[in-house]
Structure of Orotate phosphoribosyltransferase:
Amino acid sequence: MSELREQLLSLIKEMALEIGTVVLSSGRTSDYYVDLRRIVLTPRGAYLTARLLLDLVRPEVSAIGGMTLGADPIVSSMIVVGHMEGRDLCGLIVRKKAKRHGKRRFIEGPLMEAGAKVAVVDDVVTTGNSLLRSIERLEEAGYTPIQTLAVLDRMEGGREALSAAGFELESLFTRDDLGIAPRDHSM
């Protein structure tokens, strides 16, 4: 494991991982919760997350996008760190609901050419629904999502749902990296 990856994993375990029963945004109950905003909204965490995810972004990608709120700090960090390293990527934020005024858009960000290739990112993937909704909204806006990225894959069906839609999920970490055992649903 690279030194940067070890540092980010350590931050996640120290600052973002909570053991205990919680209801996730998917509606599922879990024995643990990972609040990555606690990491990606710190200078070191934002840098490490962006640096490591940028290594996964395909060369033909011209924008990074994702669903608000989980993707917002990640997208912002990635475009800044990318620029500092000579890779100019635009940021696209996908709204959960269209604006009620103005152009009533689902996508915020610079105007880009139709068909621009996008890497779609999320902080934590459980079912994959947030990434799938982002992909749908980006396609409706004329972009071409070609890649899905996440910081953490909870390994609860999201990877499979994305695969069924024709996307391979690339994540920096999985539940296994956190040392969390799969939940026994037979009880």
